[in-house]
Inverse folding.
């Protein structure tokens, strides 16, 4: 560990002396090393965003799913139509989203709230928007790339595609709207600016404080992929009153269609 | 900087290479599991909500 063990300086050093040339050499090699290091750190950051956050999210989702299962099995099964809680504290899981179009057995636990703390664990429910199955607009946000990439393929949703929301005692089926199908003129999907909060209004596109005119579900994510410049928004409408767990233990037929 | 680290590592070339690799892995782990999770919320490209801001 003493300086006597260090290798002797290369012959060129002596040739140029320890004046100008040496200083330039140090400067240029220092600059080169800094740039290389910065490049490697940026590359690592991309790896982190694309893959490492997936690991964290998968772990969170497993934990949330376990917790929901425990809560749900402790509850009495409902008769008639399923119900969803009136209000949920921010950060609490309360539903499971199933979207067959996004992949076979695609499901994610949904949490209340849309701060990064919730979105890093799974899709988040905009606080103050309707709860599943109720009149108004169930608005959910999710990451497009990273953190499990829940809404990576949201642009592949087609009119009529089922979006099933599982609550404690049953299932609600929503279907993606076709353009022109909705009497209020709600489109099936649209790309908007991040400031367009009307898309999560009780009637999408309407006033934020208006009375609900239907039972909608809205998904928002970033657009285009890898960017946060715009938002991709998908609108769906409730299809029927929902089925209870007693009526359909394995979920509604919409889950397995197609 | 890297030359300085290399000079201060003990042992022969093989030991030094092993130690360098360990050091690099430790730094990568520190970045991935501590630094990036802390830095990331302050960066703009993870926004997915509509919020009027």
């Amino acid at each position: 560990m003493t300086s006597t063990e260090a290798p002797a300086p290369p012959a060129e050093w002596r040739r140029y002396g320890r004046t100008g040339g040496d200083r330039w050499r140090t400067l240029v090699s220092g600059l080169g090393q800094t740039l290389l290091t910065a490049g490697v750190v940026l590359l690592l950051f991309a790896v982190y965003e694309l893959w490492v956050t997936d690991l964290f999210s998968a772990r969170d989702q497993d934990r949330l799913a376990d917790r929901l299962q425990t809560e749900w099995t402790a509850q009495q099964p409902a008769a008639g139509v399923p119900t969803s809680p009136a209000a949920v504290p921010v950060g609490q899981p309360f539903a499971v989203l199933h979207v067959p179009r996004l992949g076979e057995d695609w499901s994610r636990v949904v949490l209340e709230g849309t701060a990064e703390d919730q979105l890093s664990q799974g899709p988040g429910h905009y606080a103050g928007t309707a709860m599943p199955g109720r009149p108004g607009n169930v608005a959910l946000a999710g990451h497009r790339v990273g953190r499990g990439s829940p809404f990576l393929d949201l642009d592949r949703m087609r009119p009529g595609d089922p979006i099933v929301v599982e609550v404690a005692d049953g299932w609600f089926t929503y279907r993606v709207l076709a353009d022109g199908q909705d009497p209020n003129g709600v489109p099936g999907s649209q790309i908007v600016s991040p400031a367009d909060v009307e898309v999560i209004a009780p009637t999408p596109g309407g006033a934020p404080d208006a009375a609900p005119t239907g039972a909608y579900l809205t998904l928002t994510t970033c657009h285009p992929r890898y960017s946060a410049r715009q938002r991709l928004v998908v609108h769906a409408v409730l299809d029927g009153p929902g089925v209870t767990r007693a009526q359909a233990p394995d979920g509604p037929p919409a889950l397995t269609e197609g | 900087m890297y030359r300085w680290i290399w000079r201060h590592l003990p042992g022969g070339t093989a030991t030094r290479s092993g130690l360098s690799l360990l050091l690099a892995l430790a730094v990568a782990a520190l970045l991935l599991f501590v630094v990036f999770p802390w830095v990331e919320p302050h960066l703009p490209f993870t926004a997915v909500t509509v919020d009027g801001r």
Q: What stands out?
A: Strands of chain A lie at 93-98, 107-112, 124-125, 136-141, 162-167, 170-176, 189-192, 215-223, 230-238, 243-244.
